[in-house]
Amino acid sequence: MLKALLALVVIGVGLWAWRRWHYRSFWLVLGYPLMALSVRASWRRVALGCGLTKKRQRWWFTTVPGAIASTGIVKVRRRFQRVAVDTKPWMWLPLPTRHGWRVTLWTLEGQVPGDYAEAAEALAHSWGVHAVRVSSPRPGRVVLMATMRDPLVKIDHLPASPELLKVTVGRLETGKPWVVDFRTIPHWLNAGATQSGKSNLANALIVGLAPQPVALVGFDLKGGVEFTPYAPRLSALATDRSESLKLLDDLVALMVDRMGLCRQAAARNIWQLPPALRPVPVVVLVDELAELYLMADKSEKDEVARTSTALLRVAQLGRAFGIYLFCCGQRIGSDLGPGVTALRAQCSGRICHRVNDPETATMTLGDLDPAALVSARSIAAETPGVAIIASSDGQWYRARSFYVTETAAEHAARTYAHLAPAWDEITAHLPDFDPSQLLDA
Ligand SMILES: Nc1ncnc2c1ncn2[C@@H]1O[C@H](COP(=O)(O)OP(=O)(O)O)[C@@H](O)[C@H]1O
Ligand SMILES: [Mg+2]
């Protein structure tokens, strides 16, 4: 008896230790098979509870009371007849993922992926998992992705980013990497309240892009406090309004010049040019977008209008000519002027950290699923770096950036300072051209 008890204790401690020290093997060998069995076994009940079943007419054996026998016992007759039964969506075997599991379902007639998205929270509670996310790879199929625990609580280190203009900045809720790829999504809007992790993301970009053959340009109208330490790797930095106007004029002129280059070579964009001719890509980082649009008094009105137009120009045409925008902002609202709304329309990359006002979340995530907005509004202050992102596959994800300190970004900026193309060199051959002509037109 004592021996049996001891054995149980030893097994219990062993399992606990296994789970504690090597969760991945524990999950694959023990946790996942048990979970898969229980999910399959309980699917009918869960689907019924979450309202995902449909009534269907089926031929079924039913029992009907028959004649009363002489002994007084009701004889039951079995009959084959059509009855309405609850059918559940057909479920594949759940497959293990890094942080949980995923399973493919065949939707029933009349169902859309939205029905499953609506039931996602109920499903998560029924299965006792952290969250269930729904995607639909093709019509008639729905993939449910369950994560056991919040995978974004702790995040490891920033990996190297070997591909041009592509930086892995964090991790998605699904366990996949969160990639900012300027060649697929050229312009980004990054919103968040103070201390929400906006600058952290900019740091991650600087660390990722510093070793690459790209020019980095900074706009930091908070007096340059954020970006000045990274100046060694920046090709240009604007810290006040007049500097930013000058720099934007340069960018527009650069764009017009590259346009001419592409036209001559009959190329649609700089990537179609032969490598020898291809100009260096420029990534423009803006810290605090609102500063560019705010005016202290009336006298700045013209300057603000020019800034706004130039920035919009860059956003509209920059993509093809290798000029990419990454705009961070605490508040992104229509009250900043029509320029912001127009700029927003050009930025297809959307990142929404914790925000203070619902309007910023709506402006940033806008046209996405309303559930994304709810999720954005529920980001806790204790988890800076967590954000809702709109992905290139049309989905939205919760994600968390890798923690990249200012020191790390400064270090990268100094280490790769020699790779920073000089702004004078980039703009040297620009024809004498007055960009204001273009803006007035
Ligand atoms: N991904 C992250 N993981 C952990 N801590 C983070 C993360 N991002 C930001 N932080 C913490 O939050 C603080 C504020 O982040 P910061 O990027 O400066 O915010 P913001 O620029 O939005 O004001 C940072 O000093 C850092 O300690
Ligand atoms: Mg900041």
CATH architecture of one domain: 3-Layer(aba) Sandwich
* CATH C-level of one domain: Alpha Beta
Number of helices: 13
Instruction: Measure the end-to-end span.
Output: 93 Å
Topology as a string of helices (H) and strands (E)? HHEEEEEHEEEEEHEEHEHHEHEHHEEHHH
Percent of residues in beta strands: 15-25%
Task: Give the biggest beta sheet.
Answer: 10 strands, mixed
Structure notes:
- This protein has 13 helices and 17 strands.
- With 441 residues, it is of the alpha/beta class.
- The protein has a domain at 166-440: P-loop containing nucleotide triphosphate hydrolases (Rossmann fold, 3-Layer(aba) Sandwich), CATH 3.40.50.300.
- Strands 9-8-17-16-15-10-14-13-11-12 form a ten-stranded mixed sheet.
- α2 packs across α3, α4 runs parallel beside α11 and α9 packs across α10.
- It is elongated, with a radius of gyration of 29 Å.
- The relative contact order is 0.11.
- Bound molecules: adenosine-5'-diphosphate and magnesium ion.
- Adenosine-5'-diphosphate binds next to α4 and β17.
List strands and helices in order, with pairings.
Layout: H1 2-21, H2 23-49, E1 54-68, E2 74-87, E3 90-91, E4 95-97, E5 100-106, H3 113-127, E6 131-135, E7 141-147, E8 166-172, E9 177-181, E10 187-191, H4 198-209, E11 215-220, E12 234-238, H5 241-264, E13 282-287, H6 289-293, H7 301-317, E14 323-329, H8 338-346, E15 349-352, H9 358-365, H10 370-377, E16 386-390, E17 396-401, H11 406-415, H12 423-428, H13 435-440
Parallel strand pairs: 10-14, 10-15, 11-12, 11-13, 13-14
Antiparallel strand pairs: 1-2, 3-5, 4-5, 5-7, 6-7, 8-9, 8-17, 15-16, 16-17
